[in-house]
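Homework help board

Subject: predicted structure for assignment chain

Our instructor gave us this sequence and asked us to write out the predicted structure in token form, then describe one feature. I got the tokens but I'm not sure how to describe them. Can anyone check?
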Amino acid sequence: MTKPVPPSESAAFDGADDDIARRYATQARVGTRFFKVGEGAPDLTELRAELDEMTDVLMGRTPPPTDVGTATLMEVASAYYTRALEITGIIQRLEATGAVITKTSAHYKFRTGELRTFTELAKAATELGSRRISAIQLEFDLAGRR
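My token output:
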């Protein structure tokens, strides 16, 4: 599940949207992401709860675990997308090693159903976040030419 950056570290991310570079410079203090996501592949109940939590953030129902201004959607969606791919890989490894996962198992149905749908949702949100950044960069570039 998503774990917000501790307040002592998230304070570095406060400020105006035009100060994105400073916020990115502090990213190394918390790893390659601004926040932590779940680990491993817990039971399906926990995986569904994790996907539900991430879906609520991407759909705007709950606040994101971090705020990096304009880049927030792209950063959060990208982290969620990679987490979904990680879960997919773990389940596929279990299938390949002959674990009890078959085409009729709950894990297989989860991977090819809910998890695949969430992966598509997170990818679309990542692309939208990227387009927002591109649009702002274009506005910035055009304003500099005036």
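Reply (TA_rk): Your tokens look well-formed. For the description, you could write something like this. The first helix runs from residue 7 to 10. That's the kind of observation they're looking for.
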